[in-house]
């Protein structure tokens, strides 16, 4: 029993190391350029172990791309400040976890990654927008879609394309620029 427990812990640690290396590699290189060999090297394991745990690169990406936006409860935020609070939260998520960056980088060239991104925004953001706006799900989907255009666009330009003026602009300034737009998408008709 002790050996089985020890093996299970070692197995969990190996899987975690693979997923960490995969997230870093997918974020840096994108899906197409990422290789099982490079990910295994970063995890300091044999490539056969990656195949053993995940089967192939697509399955590995799917496992590595699990992402929770961790959208905050904004009900206590004054209504006039919700847009800015949401933008600030998105910047915290982009800068605090490379999984979303890997999804964005990969989603522009890989349909499964694009589908995963759509799913994340459709399930997680639409629920929050529905609660905040008090509107039907169909209407909230439109609002969430517009919010996604802004947040994904800024993330693409700042973190992937590294567009100099967007990179140079402080996070606080970006929140001031984007907050009113997100506010409008949330509450204006």
How would you describe the overall organization of this protein?
- There is one protein chain.
- The chain is mainly α and 189 residues long.
- It has 2 domains: 63 residues, Arc Repressor Mutant, subunit A (Orthogonal Bundle); 109 residues, Tetracycline Repressor, domain 2, CATH 1.10.357.
- It is 79% helix and 0% strand.
- It contains 10 helices and no strands.
- It is elongated.
- The model has no long low-confidence stretch (mean pLDDT 89).
Tally the beta strands: 0
Shape: elongated
Please identify, by name, the CATH architecture of the largest domain: Orthogonal Bundle
Low-confidence stretches: none
The CATH class designation of the largest domain is Mainly Alpha
What kind of sheet is the major sheet?
none
Topology summary:
Blueprint (H helix, E strand, L loop, with lengths): L1 H32 L2 H8 L3 H8 L2 H8 L17 H15 L1 H10 L3 H23 L3 H24 L3 H5 L2 H17 L2
Sum this structure up briefly.
With 189 residues, this protein is mainly alpha-helical. Helix content is 79%, strand content 0%. The chain has two domains: 2-64, Arc Repressor Mutant, subunit A; 79-187, Tetracycline Repressor, domain 2, CATH 1.10.357.
């Amino acid at each position: 029993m002790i050996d089985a427990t020890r093996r299970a812990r070692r197995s969990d640690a190996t899987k975690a190391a693979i997923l960490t290396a995969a997230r870093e590699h997918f974020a840096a290189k994108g899906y197409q350029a990422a290789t099982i060999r490079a990910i295994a090297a970063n995890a300091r394991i044999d490539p056969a172990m990656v195949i053993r745990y995940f089967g192939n690169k697509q399955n590995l990406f799917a496992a590595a791309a699990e992402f929770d936006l961790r959208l905050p409860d904004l009900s206590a935020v004054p209504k006039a400040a919700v847009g800015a609070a949401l933008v600030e939260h998105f910047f915290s998520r982009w800068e605090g976890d490379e999984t979303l960056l890997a999804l964005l980088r990969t989603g522009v060239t890989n349909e499964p990654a694009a589908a995963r991104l759509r799913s994340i925004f459709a399930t997680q953001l639409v629920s929050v927008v529905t609660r905040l706006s008090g509107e039907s799900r169909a209407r909230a989907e439109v609002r969430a879609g517009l919010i996604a255009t802004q947040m994904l666009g800024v993330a693409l330009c700042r973190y992937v394309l590294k567009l100099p003026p967007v990179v140079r602009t402080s996070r606080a300034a970006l929140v001031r620029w984007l907050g009113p737009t997100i506010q409008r998408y949330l509450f204006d008709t």
